[in-house]
Amino acid sequence: MSETGAKAETEPLLEKYLRVTGEALQRVRPAPPARSFLIGAAEDFLAMARAYLSDAEVFRARGDAERALAAVSYAHGWIDAGVRLGLLDGGNDDVRFTPYR
User: Fold this and answer.
1) Is the residue at 100 inside a domain?
2) Please, what is the angle between helix 39-61 and helix 3-27, to 10°?
3) N or C terminus of the chain with fewer C-beta within 10 Å?
């Protein structure tokens, strides 16, 4: 596949994942009580997700859609893992997060 063809395929995916990950980040909340030792872990997961999402936006602005897609995937992975581990509350949203058992 040509570079132009790959970029044409990447752009729509990138837009979708930036939107979905941004929505997911707005919906999740730390799940542990404020005085729990686990609140720090929840905040770390959110910080990593925000940092990777920010990186994705920077890469997109530079025209590097492939790196942007990789970064937004990492961002969503941090959110999804936090929800699955119970560090983040995803509000039973099985669209933006991996379904619970």
Assistant:
1) no
2) 150
3) C
